[in-house]
Specification:
Blueprint (H helix, E strand, L loop, with lengths): L2 E8 L6 H21 L5 E8 L5 H4 L5 E6 L3 E6 L4 H10 L3
Parallel strand pairs: 1-2
Antiparallel strand pairs: 1-3, 3-4
Length: about 100
């Protein structure tokens, strides 16, 4: 049975950083995914953009986006495109 993880990225910022974060995550998932995140082929990771996660408190300290990892429910705030490699590596270490 395949498991699925989703990375929900808020794109409700005026700066467009959420879209940039989503693109950076997709690129990094392609780069790291096959060996680190799904060695048995049973896990799928998808980046999903959404208008609002109702987590503005997570982003008020900086210019980044809010992100939730499903099904774990981990919340990240102030995520910038440059954080994608570290975040994807963290996903590989913490399997659902």
């Amino acid at each position: 049975m395949k498991t699925e993880r989703r990375l929900f990225v808020c794109t409700n910022q005026k700066s467009g950083v959420g879209e940039a974060v989503a693109k950076a995550l997709e690129k990094e998932l392609k780069h790291q995914h096959s060996k680190k995140l799904a060695p048995d082929g049973k896990q799928r990771v998808r980046v999903q953009t959404c208008n609002c996660l109702d987590l503005c408190k997570q982003c008020k300290k900086g210019p980044g986006a809010a992100l939730i990892v499903y099904p774990e429910g981990h919340v990240y705030g102030n995520v910038k495109p440059g954080d994608a490699a570290e975040l994807v590596a963290d996903l590989g270490r913490a399997q659902p």
